[in-house]
DNA sequence: TGCTAATATATGATTAATCATATATAGGAC
DNA sequence: GTCCTATATATGATTAATCATATATTAGCA
């Protein structure tokens, strides 16, 4: 149940509402590490509250719908600290593209190249997003030297995200080049 | 529903039983691309059969429990060919370690290094498995030059899997080194 | 006036994946 | 004789994630 712990981490930074989490966090800072659906966020908040790891204060607003502001509890902080120090099994990657390629021998080269190019485009877009994120963090680092420990860790994390994308892109480009030298299905 | 398509791909290679899929494929060749639980395999086979993408022949065995041997149908082959040519959205990676690091500022360096080292160990083991797999495919390539198109694609896929692991390992080693130069939480 | 966008939460339905367990047969080890 | 392993399939339960929709308010625009 890692989403619960992501939310605990975010609530330890500061109190937030479900809406904040969705719009300010999961669409933003943490989005490269963990994506979460709005429905899942609200349901996870309910579960965290029922476990007493967070509490809720309703903030009445007159110009807008009321907000349910969540705060982490001591029990929640203890749980988070424990989780942060626990090793978790490596997650399984399931990439449709790799499966497609694995079974692609029956397709003509042209179709394979097309597939690789579409993937390349999607990955390039993702890397661009990721780099924008990185620069935002780098800018923060410079303007606020006191919080450097946290920011260094954030940069470390984003470094991997970026490198991972770059590895993928390099591989895709090489794969596309390789396809030109691969004898086609119909040309023995 | 990609598992269904992985199974279609495997059944196009040759007819198989659910048990074959689990023990010969998902524990072996395809395991670095897609993992599947035994229960999910059998249920997916039922679903594929009800969609008429595969058919089933019961093979009576006297020394062992009977086997249900599945074959791909023409409709199944058409579906597979279509799926193989369709671009799918990039899968979301959710790596607990990255989340942990993102929120790790409150932990002492020692705890962070321990976390990284445990991850390193797990990744090293995975890379070793992966390299064994690669060598097996390379050996096949040499002994059977006629099937080279398929084998070249398989190598291409395994190349990425290996490079991805290597990127991860390099990053982990660098991260551990970096931790020694990071001012600790309790040492301002 | 009606439409859209932003703010804010909630719930039903479904899919995908995992875990646990049940059943049945045969062969080999001790 | 009993236990374990390999072969083989099936099902119940649960979790995690996604999709679709519902509801309610205010502000701004055409």
TrEMBL record, chains A, B:
InterPro entries associated with the record: Tscrpt_reg_PadR_C (IPR018309), Tscrpt_reg_PadR_N (IPR005149), WH-like_DNA-bd_sf (IPR036388), WH_DNA-bd_sf (IPR036390)
Residues covered by the Transcription regulator PadR N-terminal domain: 7-81
Sequence ranges assigned to domain Transcription regulator PadR C-terminal in this UniProt record: 93-178
Coiled-coil segments: none
Organism classification: Bacteria, Bacillati, Cyanobacteriota, Cyanophyceae, Oculatellales
Alphabetical list of Pfam families matching this protein: PadR, Vir_act_alpha_C
Superkingdom of the source species: Bacteria
Protein name: PadR family transcriptional regulator
């Amino acid at each position: 149940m890692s989403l619960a712990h992501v939310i605990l981490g975010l609530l330890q930074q500061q109190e937030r509402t479900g809406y904040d989490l969705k719009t300010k966090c999961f669409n933003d800072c943490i989005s490269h590490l963990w994506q979460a659906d709005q429905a899942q966020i609200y349901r996870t908040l309910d579960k965290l509250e029922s476990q007493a790891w967070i509490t809720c204060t309703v903030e009445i607003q007159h110009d807008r719908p009321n907000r349910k502001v969540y705060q982490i509890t001591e029990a929640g902080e203890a749980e988070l600290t424990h989780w942060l120090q626990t090793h978790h099994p490596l997650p399984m990657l399931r990439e449709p593209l790799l499966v497609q390629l694995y079974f692609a021998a029956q397709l003509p080269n042209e179709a394979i190249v097309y597939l690789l190019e579409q993937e390349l485009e999607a990955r390039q877009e993702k890397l661009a997003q990721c780099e924008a994120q990185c620069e935002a963090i780098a800018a923060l680092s410079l303007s606020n030297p006191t919080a450097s420990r946290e920011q260094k860790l954030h940069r470390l994390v984003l470094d991997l995200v970026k490198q991972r994308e770059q590895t993928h892109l390099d591989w895709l480009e090489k794969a596309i080049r390789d396809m030109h030298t691969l004898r086609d299905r119909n040309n023995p």
